[in-house]
Every structure is written in C-alpha cells, then in structure tokens.
Fold these 2 entries.
Entry 1:
Amino acid sequence: MKVVKNYIDGQWVESKSTETLEVVNPATTEVLAHVPLSTPSEVETAIQAASDAFSEWRETPPLTRARYMFRLKDLMEENFEDLSRIIVEEEGKCIDEARGEVRRGIEQVEVAAGIPSLMMGYNLEDIAVGIDEYVIRQPLGVFCAIVPFNFPLMVSLWFWPYAVACGNTYVVKPSERVPLSQEKLFELVDEADFPEGVVNMVNGAKGVADTLLESPDVQGVSFVGSTPVGKLIYQKAAENGKRAQCQAGAKNFIVVMPDADLDRTIPALVTSFYGCAGERCLSGAVLLAVGDVYEPLRERFVDAASKLKVGYGLDETVQMGPVISKAHKERVLGYIEKGLGEGAELILDGRGVQVEEYPDGYFIGPTIFDEVTAEMTIANEEIFGPVASIIKVGDLDEAMAIIDANPHGNASSIFTSSGKSAREFRYKVQAGNIGVNIGVVAAMAFFPFSGSRDSFFGDLHGQGRDAIDFFTEKKVVIERWF
Ligand code: NAD
C-alpha cells in the first residue's frame, strides 16, 4: 500500500513516522493510500528549507516569480481531469463539482500571477517641503497553511500562490483525510521547477500543525476548518507571535421572500443545500420561509431535492456523492435523530438511501426537516451534511433576528425581487458573505473570502487584496535629499 510522501526542499521524501492513517474512498470504501503523521523533526526540516530559500526568493523579481505561476497554471490545465478525478476518489464529491474546484484553484494561481501590479506600494511627494514619503511592501519569510478535507485541492491555493508570489516561502499541511490531490499538485509544483525550498508540503494532523505554530521561524498561518480548531489555532498563533487568518465553521441561513422568483430560486437552493453533500462552508443549512411563500416553497423544494441522484461521483449522471467518512455519516445521522427528538417533522428522509453498487459507501440522501424552531439543535449547530431545516417566519425582521442570534457568520442569502428587502438584508445581516438571489456565495479569487463572528478569526481575509496585505509588511520610507 502506497504511503504518501512529503515534499521538502524540492525532494519527495518518505516520512520516518511509524504512525499512519488510511485514506479511504468514501463511496467505494476502498483504501487508496496511507498518510504518515510526520514527526516534529520532519516539520522542522521543511521550515528550515523554507527559511533557507527565503533570501534568494525574495530577491527574485516579482515578474520572474509570477512566471512560475504561469507555468503551474499551464500544468494544472494539462492535468485538469486527473486532478478532478483524484478529488472525487478521496473526498467523494461529484466529478462536475470537482472540476469546479480545480477551476477555482487555477483561478487563484492566475490572480497571484498579477503580483507585479498587486504588490505595488504608494507614495506622496512633498509631505513637507522637499520631503517625499512612500510605502513599500516586503515579504516576511515562511508562512504555512493548515487546511480542511472538503476542498482537498483548492483551499491551500487560497493562500500559498499569493504568499509565494509576494516573495515568501511556504509549508502546506494538507488534511490528513484527503492528501492525494495535494500530492498531485506538488508533483506539478515540482514540474514547474520552483526553486528548492520555496514551497514544501508535510503530511500529518494536529502534531504537524503544532510544530508549525510553535516554530519561531514561521511568520504566519492561514487556517481553514472547524470553529473550535480555528479558535485554538488563532490563540496559539497569537501566543507565538504570528499573523493568523482562521476561516472557520458555518451555519448558513437562506431567506426566501414571498416575492422571490421560485422557478429560479429552487434550483439554486438545491445546489446550495445538497451540492458537495452539504459539506461546504457555504452550504445552505436553514431555510427561512417568509410568509406566504412557505407552502409552495416547501412543496417544490422537497420535490426537487427528492429527485437528486445519489451515488459515486465518477459517474457523470450522479448529482450527490457520499459524506467523507463512516464517523461523519454517523454524526450526521445523530443530528437527524436529534431533530426528531426535538420535535421537528422529517418530510424528506435520506437515511435509507441505497446505492446498489456501493452498499457500504457513506451515503445519506437529501434530508429535509420542517416545523423547525430557532431554538432546536439542528437549527443552530453545523451539521455539514445534506440536511435542510425549514423555519417559517412572519417577516424579514424575524428572519434577520434568527440569523443574527446564531454565532456563525460565514454566509447568508436572500431570494427576493425587491431591491428594498435586498438592501436591508445586505445592510443589516451579520454574515461576511452575502448573497442576493445566489445560493452559494463563493467569492472570486480577486475578492476576499470573508466570514465573520465565529466563522472567522483574524482581520485580513484570504484572497483578493487582503491576501497581499496579509503576506507583506508595509515599510514606510521618508526621504529628504540635500
Ligand atoms: P477540522 O477543523 O477538523 O480540520 C482542519 C485542519 O485542522 C486539518 O488539517 C486538521 O488536521 C487540523 N487540525 C484538527 N485538529 C487540530 C488541532 N487540535 N490542532 C491543530 N490542527 C488541527 O476541519 P475539517 O473537518 O477538515 O473541515 C470541515 C470544517 O471546515 C467545517 O467546519 C467547515 O465549515 C470548515 N470550512 C470552513 C471554510 C471557510 O472558508 N470558512 C472553508 C472550508 C471548510
């Protein structure tokens, strides 16, 4: 059985760790590989390689650094289908969703290739007579990423292309559950011929993350994952004097107003709640039906969701894959039990879904609870599975009060044909990513991926201009020449 290697200082190296975990295809339950829980000294070697590479890399002109991104982009395009297939095999999402993920990953590399413009500073002549002042941006050193399972390829690309284009060097820790698309990505990094030590990858779990966070040679960390871990990493980064941006868990509310265009709303809702089997930090979780829309919305949403084809994502006709693991399936089923126990009405039950060819796969069909109240556990906690909760509300104010009472603030959407309702929603709702007639509020690479309250710890977000601020230090120069 293959054991995934680390990529350190431009070389593929076997971990000496005796501890490994299985990487399992969640649809077929086939063991695809083993992943090592790398040792602290292996992490330190990677950090050292990145530190050693820094001074030469930062002196490499931004335009030259950008050319590595162009090469990587070309290689990713050439390997587009391979990358997509690996994502399906290790994570379970459908092939089209995986293609979307690869496309979004490539877009990060494309945007980072604009670094000569993005990294410019600014200036002002004559701040006093004969004195000029300017700001230059400089890289800081070694950064690292600690990333989640649900977008195995894309999430590290939210960070390292910007960091590296800015002249920093990097260590990626993939999710121990899905290391294979990162392995493939690093084969392409190797082929793009980045100088040794500029981008490194070390496999493992908490232990690897801890060594990265404790190292005095790491300047900053980008984390994406659950809220409890995000909070912990933010604290640990602060204790160790590092910059940190921690994108965390979510509970996303979608408001449907009586004046919404249901023909367009329903398909957007189905994608939002059931795309990637609900394992998306931007997935809809609670549907807030305002006033009269409740009856038709409920009926049409159930009808559309019940028609989704569940199965192995490599089959092009499948519309929803499994959840990531047996343990996670049990966790989601536990929430369904909890919903029933708390008195919600199960109007679409995905528990008994059968996928003939893969009877042991971690499948759960689309599930919908009605008669949910704002106090119930299923309306409050992140389930991260294909489970929707419908709450009937009287008006927009009531809907917004429910949204703001939840501690998460990742994304929230409104479906309406009223500009006034949309503006009020955008103006007041405490979520970092707002959708108007959009079900999945996925920002493009050139905008920051926001998130607020318990869904984000930090101030500078990933991607967009925030990325350049996060990965550079601003130096102010004041000059007078006699
Ligand atoms: P997770 O928090 O379990 O793991 C994320 C990463 O942290 C992994 O690499 C893991 O190895 C590491 N880790 C776990 N425990 C740790 C610890 N105690 N100390 C240090 N590192 C630790 O998250 P997951 O289950 O892989 O991903 C799903 C979660 O990610 C969901 O909550 C989802 O909402 C969230 N997510 C958020 C965003 C966003 O942008 N806000 C995007 C994608 C996923």
Entry 2:
Amino acid sequence: MARVAFIGLGRMGQGMAGRYLDAGFTVSVWNRSKAKAEDLIARGARWATSPEDAAIDADAVVTMVADDNASREVWLTKDGAAANMKAGTLAIECSTVSHQHALHMAGVLGARGLIYIDCPVTGLPEAAATGKLTLLVGAEAADLDRAKPYLAPIGNVVRHFGAVGSGTVFKLINNLMGAVQIASLAEGIAMAERAGLDMNLVAEALATGAVASPQVIRHSKRMVARDFSGASFTAALRHKDADYAVQLAESLLPESPLVGRAAVEAYARAKAEMPDDDEGRMIEIVSRPK
Ligand code: NAP
C-alpha cells in the first residue's frame, strides 16, 4: 500500500491526514506538538519522531503548516523531511506559502531529485475532514499525473494553473480578495450600526444582495451577532496570506495603487490583538470607538 507522510496537524491537517487513513494508505504523521496526533495514532497512523523520520520511506510527503517559516522548518532543517527522502519522491506543499518561497522550495528540493508541487487549498476544516477541498496546483503535467493518487483522498476539485508556483499565485489572489471583502464588510456593518439601522435587516440584505459573495454570506450574520464560535480561519493566517499576496502584487503591478494594502494593515491590527481568533472579529476592531 502506498505510504504517505503527513506533516502539520492543525485545524486543516488533522482532517486531511485522516482522509489518507480512511483511504487505506499507510500513514506516518508528525506535528510540532504531539497532542494533535493522538486521534490519528489511535486510528492507525505511525507517530514519527521528526519530519525526517516521517518521510524516510514515504512515496509522498504532504505538508500543511502555517507559513513560510514553518514550511522551511519541516522541510529543510537538520531533521527536516527532505533530509533523507528518496530521489523521485513527491513533495506536496498544501500550506499557503509565499510565491517566492514556493519557487525557492521547488529549486532546493528539485536539486535533491525530489518532485515539489505547490498545492494550496480552498475550503474550511470541515471540507478538509471530508475530502472536499479544492486543490490549486502548480506542477508540470507529468508530475501532477504522478501526484493524482495522493491528491484524490483530500480534494474533489483539482485546478491546475501551470508550472510550480502558479497554484500559489492563484491562492494568494483568492485570499487577498477575501481579506479585502471581509475587512470591507466589517467596515460596512460598523457604519450601519453607528447609523442606527436595523441590523437584522442589514445582515439579510448584505447576504442576499449584489455584494453577497460567499465571504459576505458567511460573515455578515456572525459579525452582526458577534458570534465567532467554531473559529476556522484565524486573524493571523488571514494577515499572513494578505501580506504574501501584497508582496506578489507589488512585483506584478508596481505601477498600480493596491487596495490590498489596506486589508493587510487591518489584519495586522487583528493579528496583534487576537492572532488565534476568528478572522471575523475584525468587526470588533473596526467598530471600537477611538
Ligand atoms: P493551524 O490550525 O493554526 O495549524 C498550523 C499548523 O502549523 C500546526 O500544525 C502547527 O503546529 C504548525 N506550525 C506552525 N508553526 C510551525 C513551525 N515553526 N514549525 C513546525 N510547525 C509549525 O492552521 P490551519 O488552519 O490548519 O492552516 C494550515 C495551513 O492551511 C495554513 O497555511 C493556512 O493558511 C492554510 N489554509 C487554512 C484554511 C482554514 O480554513 N483553516 C483553509 C485553507 C488553507 P502546532 O500544532 O505545534 O502549533
């Protein structure tokens, strides 16, 4: 049976790793803090003592960690996954990283004979646990073909944007637009509150009108009710994605004023105050009297 090493068992990674167990793969897991692996170990995963140990006999190594720094740590440090992987092994980066980092990793791991593909995802933890993520892939077509059996358990839609790095380009565009929408929604709701509008009516009108994107639909009622139970995407992660995206935007559109910078600034405040809380709590920052 094919062997997968899964590294990074946060909100997303726990569900994704479980999908490989459900699909009958032989799975080894590693996470910086072991407690998050207990359920997977009970279901049959092998606990590895390091990313290197997890990856040593794997046919594919899948990572789902927070950011560039975490990705560097799990792939490239002394006991990182890449230390002892066999040439030709798939290195599938599902974490949302910067474009520069994805290209750098492709170069470093490629030089060791490994096949790095960027495969950031869209979908919430619930989609991760049920194999319903959308996978945004950057890879040579032949590498994607080889990777497909390892992508099938975790995603039901694969969008192949082109060469390595292109999945990350799209993911960053997507998440920057999400950051702009959520920050702008918070500002709109705060304005409506100050103006004394009927907030049930405002929430309903926003979620069904011309600006009703999935982000607006998801967050409008929660923001009005200040109900952030079931946090799935944190302020720190939203800031990270927007920040990476604006760096990319500045390189692609140096002549253009960037709306995204305002969202990065807004999420820098949210990250400073409530890094591990739901991104929707942006409303509390925007609506607070000075
Ligand atoms: P999370 O719950 O905060 O988990 C983060 C993971 O990264 C944990 O396993 C954490 O280990 C690990 N980590 C952080 N810093 C590390 C370091 N320096 N060295 C090693 N491991 C480190 O985040 P998540 O929501 O699962 O998100 C994971 C990735 O998926 C992120 O890139 C995020 O942008 C992306 N994503 C998230 C969602 C979502 O809805 N949540 C949707 C799409 C994409 P510990 O457990 O030890 O802290």
